[in-house]
Amino acid sequence: MHIAKATFTNGTITISAELYFNKNHELVNFISYDRYETNGNTYHNFPWSTPVKDYKMLNGYLLPSQGSMIYHKSEGEFTYGELTYKSVTYNVTEMQDWVF
């Protein structure tokens, strides 16, 4: 497993994450400590990860076909989203109707 730290700045906002790669140099996880949850009164910072898997050729690109979005809370993991990619379109020049 290889890990790289990435930082992105847009204006006055900077975020960072740890990127995890397998032995085939495929991204397998993204962990950020810059995400917060709020109930409207207080903010709580939990690590947030987006593990991806099942790399496939999608429209000529080798990409992960599945992914999850997970908050790592003190009481346990909370998966708030799971995705399965069926196709990828790049350089879209007009809006399209998307089916999920």
Characterization of the model:
The protein is mainly beta and 100 residues long. It has one domain. It has strands spanning 2-10, 13-21, 27-32, 36-38, 43-45, 48-49, 52-58, 61-73, 76-84. Strands 1, 2, 3, 6, 7, 8 and 9 form a 7-stranded antiparallel β-sheet that branches. The chain has a two-stranded antiparallel sheet with strand order 4-5. The chain is globular and about 45 Å long. The model has no long low-confidence stretch (mean pLDDT 88).
Relevant terms:
100 residues; mainly beta; 7-stranded antiparallel β-sheet; two-stranded antiparallel sheet; 9 strands; 0% helix
Tell me the overall shape: globular
Oligomer: single chain
Report the radius of gyration as a whole number of Å.
16 Å
Major β-sheet annotation: 7 strands, antiparallel
Derived from helix and strand composition plus strand pairing, the structural class reads mainly beta
Ends apart, CA distance between termini: 32 Å
* Strand residue percentage: over 45%
> Which series of helices and strands comes N to C?
EEEEEEEEE
Unreliable segments of 5+ consecutive residues:
none
Mean pLDDT: 88
Tally of alpha and pi helices: 0
Q: Estimate nothing, just give the exact number of structural domains.
A: 1
Extended strand count: 9
Helicity level: under 10%
